[in-house]
Amino acid sequence: MRVIDLSKYNTVTDWNSVAQNVSGAFIRVGYRGYVVGVISEDNKYRMHAEQCKAAGLPFGVYFMSQAITEDEAREEADYAVWMAAALEATLPIFIDSEDGDGTARDVRADGLSQDQRTAIVRAFCEQVRSHGLQAGVYASESWFKTRLHYDMVKGYLIWAAKYGVNDGTAHDQPALEKVDMWQYSSRGSIPGIAGSVDVNECYFELPSVAPVLQPPEVLSAMNTSVDAFYRVAVKDNATGKVSWLPEVKNLEDYAGLNEKKIIVGIMAKASQGQMRVQAHVRGKGWYSVVTGYDINDRKNGFAGDLVNEIDSVMMYYVTPDALRKAIGGYKKAKYSVSVDKNSDFYSWQYDNETGISPEGKKQDGYAGTYGKPIDGLYLCFV
After folding, report:
1. Domains in the chain, ordered, with CATH?
2. Which residues 6+ apart lie within 8 Å of 370 measured at CB?
3. Are 60 and 26 in contact (CB under 8 A)?
4. pTM over 0.70
């Protein structure tokens, strides 16, 4: 039976027409960023899912992974399960394992070994199964043969891509021992869809009844903790040498060489969600907000210019939608700095809030004092 797969890159103009021409759909629920590694929702997931369901079509989801550890894979799986259950998806959940964006530098998962990638895929699928749902793996035929250990993943549903001439019709099937779904073209033409769409031949039964699992059950299983990771670059004023200090996690230590060297660069990321960091540079004002975590990316990889002293910093945490629903609110960046060779840290600042903090202290929307260079930083999430 023919099914389609969709993402934010597809525009559906008439779901009723689509429903007359396909038996189901797989919708991208989200993805992990290529460089920073932040989980984001596909911004058309909800619309596609709700309209697909309204047209009477069963749907499942897939998550485009950039996990580099098994824990990250389980985090991705919990996210996909929650989002699928929230909109009553009835079909399996797949992990999409493929190359990163060729335009991005330092794509985080591209350097994984075959063993590592296989372990990550298995961790995702086992986590989905732990919720009582069917799990599967999407990859190209060659990827299954060279980048994954096929024999170690064939116990899950196998969704293999092989296009041949890629003209919208099916040609040679993937040469794999077992294929549960075959993506045979990215240039399919389906009435009701503007432009081309991925088309697949599905060989397993498409259940029409939603899984027993409902969103509240997923909430208790979802990882709702968020870890902060951050680094600073310090400058030796005597020599002019700039060096990045080791990464710090949460409040296990502070970042900086308190009372010794001044900070000229700051970078921060979250284990899930996105960090926004803005540096105020002495004598130059506020620089642009950055969201990256890459010492080689001078445009968006870190805050500061590695030359001039940072005297204030604003840090803001963007809570992922699924996490917000799971905890019934938002998490915030909680941070503090020490300045100008003063070993005492300032009172806590929360995101870019002003007014009185939970500790009863005045907040300015940022941490620091104009004209006094920062030499230490603490960061966590609450």
Report:
1. 2-221 (3.20.20.80), 228-381 (no CATH)
2. 280, 282, 311, 312
3. yes
4. no
